[in-house]
Specification:
flat; mainly alpha
Length: 76
């Protein structure tokens, strides 16, 4: 379990680096990371207030990022 969680944290960090440089792959990796982390928490039965709060904040950020997605650089 700790190794899987470590991979999820690493992908979230890499996605933030891509967002910092305004790259489209950053948004795509962030979306995959959010869904993977949500699935991980559901399978680990870690459902509480923090889970629902983090999911709602993440989905709000996804909506904002998708608004600026066409303006982002598609190149690596």
């Amino acid at each position: 379990m700790p190794a899987i969680y470590g991979i999820l944290v690493a992908t979230n960090f890499i996605a933030c680096v891509g967002l910092w440089y305004f790259k489209q792959w950053g948004v795509q990796l962030y979306i995959v990371s959010v869904f993977a982390k949500t699935l991980f928490y559901i399978l680990a039965d870690q459902l509480g207030f923090g889970f629902y709060f983090n999911c709602s904040v993440s989905f709000i950020f996804i909506i904002i990022m998708l608004r600026f997605y066409p303006k982002m650089n598609p190149n690596l």
